[in-house]
Each structure stands twice: as C-alpha cells, then as structure tokens.
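stage 2 :: seqdesign
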C-alpha cells in the first residue's frame, strides 16, 4: 500500500504541492537561523510600520496610491495586509501579532524565490546542482545587515527584478496564455519600477523568435498593464523634485559600487575589506572570462536564453541603481563596509544564479568544459561551507535595527497620548525617528488585549551610559527608588532577568529618584535581559 501512495504523490499535483510546501518550510527554517531576531524580538521596522499606519489611518486605497510619492509599492502592501489578516486570525487583533505575522510572510517570500529557482531549472540542470542553486540563493551574503532583510517586508522589492526575469523565462516556455504569471509580473512592476522596464524589454526579447500574432495574444495583456502602470509612475516621478534620484555622484567609488559590491561580492565577501580597485578589476575580468567561456561552450538553447535574460536584467538593474541611487557612491568608499546591502542583494542573487546555472550545465558536457564546471561548482560550495558560521547570525544580528521595546510595548506607550484631530495617535517604531500613525480606537482595542507595562517605560533612558536602564560601562541597571525596590534589591540577593539568566547583587547606590544596582559577572546585554522593572528577585535574604 505504501508503494501505491508513493506513486500517487510522485505523479499527481498533490505530490507537487506537498513538495513545494516541504521546500518552503525547509527554506524558511534556514532563513530563520540566518536571522532569528524576528522570532525573539517582535518589533516593527521602518516602512513596515509606516505603510501599516497609512493603510489603517487613511485607508488602503490611499496606501495603494500614495504610500510613496514617486512609485507604487503594491507587493509590499499585499504582505502588510496579509500580516494584519494573520494577526487578526491568530491573535484576535490586527496589531497585536503584526510583527510576527509580517516575519512569517517575509520568510515565505524569500523562501519562495529560492523554490522558484529550483523549479525554473528543472530539465536544465542535474538534480544535485538544482539543490545547490536552491541553497545558495538562501545563503546569499548580506554584509552585516541581514536583520534589515529577513523577517522584514520593506525591502522585498529589490528581489523582484530577479523574480521578473525568471517568470518571463517561464512564460516564454509556455504555449498558452499565463494569467497567473502575468498577474505576478504586474505586481512586480507596481512594486519596483525596474521590473516595469525589464518586463517590457524581455517581452520584446521573446518576440524575436515568435510569430507576432501569437506574441500579441500571449503578451498583450501584460504589455498594456505595464504601459498603464508606467504612465502613472512617469507622471509621479516627473512631479517629484528629485526625479527619484538621491545623493550626488562620486566617480572614485564607481568601481567599488558597480563591480566590487554589485558583481563579485558573492565570491569575495570573506575578504571584502582587503580589496582595492585594481584587485576588483582583475577579479571581475577573471569572472567575466569564466562566465563567457562557459556560455560559449553551452549547447542548451534554453540555458542560453535564461542566462541572456538574467544578463539583461542585471545590466538594466545596475545602470538604474547607480543612476537613481547616486548616494551609494557616497556611502561606499575604501572597501570599509558594505551597508546599505539592500540595494545590491537583487544584483547579487542574479550573479549567483547565473554563475551556478552555467557551471552546473557544463557538467553535462564533456572534456574541458565539464572539468571547468565541476571545479567551479566545487570551489563555490567550499567557499560557502567554510563561511557558513559568518552567514548565519542567529539571534543576535551584527547590525541592530531594533531595540528593547517590542511593538506591543510601543503600542502601550500611547496609552496617555491624546488623539489628533483625525482620531489617530503616533506609535514610535524602529528606527526611532519613524512612527506609525494608527487610529486611537484600534490601538486602544489592542492594548485592552495585552499586558502593558505597569509604569512609564520612558523612565529607563538610552544615552551614552545606558540602554533602557541597563548600564553600558559596568554590570548593572537602575530602578525607581521606592521602598518596595529597596527591600527587594539588596546586596547578596539574586536577580532573574527576562531571558531567565541570573546574577547576584554585589552593591547598590541610591539617589532621590533611582537605585543603581551592581551585579556580578560581565556587562549585561540590554537586548537580552530586558527592561529593569520586569526583573525578579528570586533569592531574598
């Protein structure tokens, strides 16, 4: 009987669906291990909160039209909406579990891209290489800023250029109309303007080998949709004072931006800080030579088409990135850092994918091409295995984008805040100069369902000496000077922190308002131990 079921699942749509679900779960687990913070520190980051505020205070139609002044972000808003829906279903409120729900959809999105890579290469690559492609796209190096990417939705648009190239390749292999694929392509075009340009260019590219009437029937809807979206974006950008461009251009950083960070970074990330312009040019020429050699030896027409589409996507994306984000040449200089990595991750995944597809396809050849392909895949695999500890940041990310306060804490902080004329309150999110404007009644409904702090958390300051009441220069913290705290926090007693670790009190000092508590051991990590009023004295004398 088990053989019958195995044959059923291997030959039916049900088996394919289960396979996709299993891969999504596996990929999501990998991404969670790469950046576990979203599952341990529930905060809302940047546009993830700002756009939520627009949607809830001004309506979803306003968010769809005006979330950004120069282009649309429909794909981001789709996941913001889905996060509120999931939070409402599982927590009984749209806000209470919003960060957790958004993290789920973020992991889902990035996992889906890697699963798409696996299925796009079906019949093009050996099975083992398809798995390497799947894993490699999950382990793309992101400098020190994976915390800004995985578990967040604000930056998914940078991947959509790559997704667009893959979907148009899939579409080119179909003989009939592809309404579902077209719908996703339109969402991509209405999320990242580069996708709009790329869709029009690659659709024209597919016309070269097709009958014009069949091409129109197959691509007419997507072309018309892109032209409408493009016209709307054109008028928006034209009305913008900076025309969508930011910063000024520094010619001396061009090589670092266009070659080091955008092109060879996935292969040199362990020693990026030791690079120079000369080394980067040499390595870039070597990589181009390798890719060119593999491409000339490639016999599969479909592989060549796929790589050609990826190359077109890469160059359009790179040119528009450098042109529209001139500030990158100011931020990067001297190979001292890679932030902001988000602008380059979409370019890097195109490079990794194309590199492995060409090298993996060469394994089906013979002679020198097969040897070069095998050596290339092996070298890439060894590089990533050797640096897997650096790629997986775990619970504590190298670059911190959030703080000690959870989104629920930030909701609670508005308890005494009066509503504005439109009935809204401003909920501070991270970075702390951002906020979500939410209806007071929605926030109040959420607060009634959660346990808010019993005191004003603004008492626990963050400055050069403290992080939310936790000392930076010595092991300890401070509390309100109350009789209850003086009675509990005595020398010799043991304190249990929010992460369940414990320290013994070795000294105290007092002022009119505070009690400074000194504990044994190393300096406390504020993010782990939590806020002082939540500490528990578990061993009183």
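stage 2 :: out
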């Amino acid at each position: 009987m088990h053989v019958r079921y195995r044959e059923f699942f291997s030959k039916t749509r049900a088996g394919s669906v289960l396979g996709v679900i299993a891969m999504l779960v596996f990929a999501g687990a990998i991404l969670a291990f790469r950046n576990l913070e979203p599952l341990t520190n529930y905060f809302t980051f940047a546009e993830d909160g700002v756009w939520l505020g627009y949607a809830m205070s001004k309506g979803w139609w306003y968010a769809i039209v005006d979330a950004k002044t120069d282009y649309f972000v429909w794909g981001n808003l789709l996941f913001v909406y889905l996060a509120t829906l999931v939070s409402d279903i599982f927590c009984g409120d749209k806000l209470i579990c919003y960060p957790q729900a958004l993290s789920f959809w973020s992991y889902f999105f990035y996992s889906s891209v890697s699963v798409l890579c696996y299925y796009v290469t079906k019949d093009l690559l050996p099975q083992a290489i398809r798995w390497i492609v799947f894993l490699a796209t999950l382990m793309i190096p992101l400098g020190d800023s994976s915390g800004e990417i995985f578990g967040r939705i604000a930056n998914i648009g940078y991947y959509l250029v790559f997704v667009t190239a893959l979907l148009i390749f899939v579409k080119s292999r179909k003989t009939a109309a592809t309404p579902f694929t077209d719908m996703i392509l339109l969402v991509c075009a209405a999320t990242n303007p580069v996708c709009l340009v790329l869709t029009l260019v690659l659709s024209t590219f597919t016309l070269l080998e097709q009958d014009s009437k069949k091409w129109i029937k197959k691509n007419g809807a997507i072309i018309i949709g892109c032209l409408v979206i493009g016209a709307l974006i054109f008028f928006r950008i034209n009305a913008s004072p900076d025309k969508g461009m930011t910063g000024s251009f520094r010619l001396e950083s061009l090589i670092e931006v266009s070659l080091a960070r955008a092109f060879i970074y996935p292969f040199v990330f362990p020693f990026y800080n030791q690079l120079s312009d000369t080394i980067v040019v040499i390595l870039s020429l070597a990589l181009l030579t390798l890719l060119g050699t593999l491409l000339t030896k490639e016999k599969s027409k479909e592989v060549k088409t796929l790589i050609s589409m990826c190359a077109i996507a890469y160059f359009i994306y790179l040119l528009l990135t450098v042109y529209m984000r001139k500030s990158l040449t100011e931020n990067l200089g001297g190979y001292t850092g890679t932030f902001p990595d988000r602008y380059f991750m979409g370019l890097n995944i195109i490079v990794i994918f194309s590199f492995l597809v060409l090298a993996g396809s060469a394994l089906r050849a013979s002679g020198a091409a097969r040897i070069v392909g095998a050596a290339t895949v092996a070298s890439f695999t060894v590089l990533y295995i050797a640096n897997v500890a650096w790629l997986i940041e775990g619970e504590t990310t190298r670059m911190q984008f959030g703080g000690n306060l959870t989104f629920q804490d930030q909701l609670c902080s508005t308890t005494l805040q009066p509503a504005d004329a439109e009935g809204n309150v401003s909920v501070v999110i991270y970075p702390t100069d951002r906020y979500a404007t939410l209806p007071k009644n929605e926030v109040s409904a959420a607060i009634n369902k959660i346990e808010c702090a019993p005191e004003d958390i603004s008492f626990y300051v963050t400055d050069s000496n403290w992080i939310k009441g936790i000392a930076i220069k010595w092991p300890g913290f401070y509390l309100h000077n109350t009789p209850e705290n003086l009675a509990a926090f005595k020398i010799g007693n043991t304190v249990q922190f929010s992460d369940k670790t414990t320290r013994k009190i070795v000294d105290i000092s007092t002022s009119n308002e505070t009690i400074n508590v000194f504990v044994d051991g190393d300096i406390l990590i504020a993010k782990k131990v939590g806020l002082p009023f939540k500490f528990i004295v578990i061993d009183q004398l």
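stage 3 :: structure notes
- The two ends are 67 Å apart (CA to CA).
- The mean pLDDT is 90.
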